[in-house]
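Supplementary Text 2. Reproducibility record for the structural model of the 960-residue chain.

All settings were left at their defaults, and a single model was retained for analysis rather than an ensemble. We include the record here because the model underlies the residue-level annotations in Supplementary Table 4.
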Amino acid sequence: MIRIGLRDARSHFRRFAMSIIAIALGVAFVVGSFCFREMMNNQVSEMMATNSDHDVYVRGSDEVTDDDSSDGGSSDTGQSDSGATEYNTISIDLTDAISKVDGVEDASVTYSVSGVVLVDANGDAVATMGSPTMATGFSADHPWRSATFTSGTYPTADDEIALHSFAAEKSGLKVGDKAKVVYSDGPKDVTVTGIFATDATQAGAIVIGVTPSVAKHYSDLTNDEPDKTGRIGVYGSANGGKPLTDAQQTELADRINAALPADAHAHAITGDAYRDEATKSTQDALGFVQPLILIFAVIALFVGSFIIANTFSMIVRESMRGYALLRSIGASPMQVFSTVIVQAVLLGLVGSGLGIGLGWGMVELIVAVMAYMGTPLSGAIAPSATDMIAGLIVGLVVTLVGASLPARRAAFAPPIQAMNETVNPEKPVAPRGVAGAVLCVLGAATWLWTARIALADGDPTSIDALNRFAAWTGTGWPLGVGAGLLVIGVIMLGPALVGPAGVVLGWIPSHVFPVTGRLASRNLARSKRRTANTAAALFVGIAIVSCLGVVASSAKASVASIVDTGLKADFAVFSASSGQIPEGAEQAIRDVDGLKSVSANRFILGAKFDGERVQGMTFAAQDTLFTDVFAPEAKAGNADEALRGGQLVVGQTIAEDRGWNVGDKVRVTTENTVVDEDATAKAQADYQASIQAQIATLQTQLQRQTAARDIAGAQDTAAKIQQVTDDAKNVDPASFVKTKTVKVDKELTVGAIISNNVYRTCVIMNDELGDELGTKQTMFTTMMYLVAEPGQDVNDLQERLKDAVKSYYVVSVMNRDEYKSTMSSMVDQILLILYALLALSIVIAIFGIVNTLALSVSERTREIGLLRAIGTSRGQVRGMLGIEAAIISVFGTLLGLAVGVAAGVVIRAVYASQGLEVLSIPWDQIGAFLILSILVGLIASVSPASRALKQPVLDAVSSE
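Retained model, structure tokens:
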């Protein structure tokens, strides 16, 4: 029986081609997702080993919550602790105690500043696709072990930089070249002193080496605790500058822990332990990528399963007489079943094998494209044995599931009927249709319930039990359950809709093409299940794409509505440098003539309300915010009066989360680190006293040596005096600066609650309160809105504003239309990749239509021969099959559009409070889908029609 199955597979190999493609695409996504995840994991591991390469790290010993954590600005080079356990910050003064521990070669805080911009010699900003630009501090005294200079050396002055090799390549800069670096306070002229390489690629990041003092200065500007840090890195000396072994790291960490002051709240851990923690947290943060790719794998395999089922239906139908003969000579149903399963296993193996190779190639292509676009990756990407086994199993399982029903039909068809090709007629579709209709009703009801929960202002019903149930489920679960019920329900209901759909959709073709149109419409109902399964393949892809289309269109319409109806300002200003507008740029804008008002939103770091931080932003704004920039949509109170009167204006989401109402008293606290003038003066005086005492001691020694005529000794002592004097002159004054934490505590009143989408998660106060609660270190401008004076030429004013900020490179001045267009293009960019990937499901659906028509043609060989014998032209045969395919495509497309648009409407309602205020249905896109579906059908009919017409008329007539 195995040999029979293999022989049948060989004879039907052409039939398998499209199913193999469907399996290969699905398996490719599965294998590709695993390869991509492993590549990202390897990339993270390599970067952590390079960028966090200290032998020991000293960090806080107490775990803290988000509310207690500090907004520290220092970090290891390229390192992000996103997702990792947070610990208390520690004093940077601990570096002195750590440096004295036996076995410590260097102990320092590595400061990194993100959001800077490198400008090359031609005046162009250097940037890559999505990767950051950062300045990190290191020097010969405080080196970066994993960095090796290929030319030049470390920067030693504030106006000097070193460049990572990738940054040098992108900028075209070399040692000795002049360039600019744009910091938060504006551009600085610099000279390139060195080019260095690192052990691992930086994934497209532009890394700039600066002196530690420069890095610390700019890090402190965004750090409310400049005398604290998250960690101190330690290099050990045991291996002569090479990384310590695990045992040596542990020994050094133990010695450091013994030397740390008891009240330091600090603890030393090995570098390996720190890297393992940081690597895992970063890998977990990137874990969403694999499920995203697997979603497309599920879609491709789900759609492909219909093609596989139709393919085996075709093969079983053509081989039915052979199976009947096997049954008549004693083969059991299970043996006949096994012949089909053998073919399915072979099909699954071939398709899975191709899919594994395709998945590997897909990741290779992604890596090549990312490298070309400026994000080189070095992680391993070859599929592991586990990846290949997973892809193989998935391909086999999907194939076996798709082949099982046709195989069962072949095994249990009565031999006599099978020999006469009077196979059991198709089962009634009414019971299945009823069950599908019930599921559709339940799905629709679930979505209506979801929309009611989302749109309700308070409890969705007057029944407590239902309200508690709604609070327990939220909107996520009902939304997903409703989608599942509707998709399954439509697929089950599909066969019952084929007949009515053929009549309705075939009405126009039947009147335009009376013969071929009527024949095509009637042919669809011959195998309702097969037709519905083919349409279902297209239905799934269209449903997802149309759902995304509604969401995207609504998002763009919502943004446009905010700009058109809510934004009063003529211009919006923002910065590509960490969102922070340099002070110089802000002043340059204010100095431009022709502006009626300038509103700057200043973000306040670390503000707490009744002891807790809000889940949103806190910022200070000018009194003109609600009169000249945004019209407030007040739920309670008067926003403009509240802002001017020194009260809080609270976004609706925050007010609901905290249970605040207008008139409530809220205690607002901030902790700001400021310069301790007395302690700083004392530190300077103590240093001067120590220098004077040292010089006095040396001078006394010099006098004795001179008196004793010790010429050599006197010369040596004189040199020491000169050295001490020079060191005192060159000492960095910042090293004497002492800070203290000042807590500001104010009781403020909630003056208004507003529902504007842009401010729903914001707490707004006026500038006066902002200055009392914050400092320069804890406040920075994130957005500016400008209003032109009446009668000003807006276009001319915009050009003057652009000229004013041109030297800052990162600052953009946009008018209302440009601002709206930029927001809309961001939505399009996010959805572009999703559209491209989901288009694969439509391509697979085309294969399904081809298969279905090919099966239909094989079943109607004699009928088509008779039609041609009585004078039907070749064009009419092609037209009949083309109309059939077009009706199937339009049928699947209409089902997909109905469900997809409904899903988009519900999703829009669920997320209305998060920005999707306006419902917009892209009717042009829907029309394009319908036209595309007709073209898809016509294209899919070409091959089956050609096959039908190749059969000689007499052979076709006598085929049965």
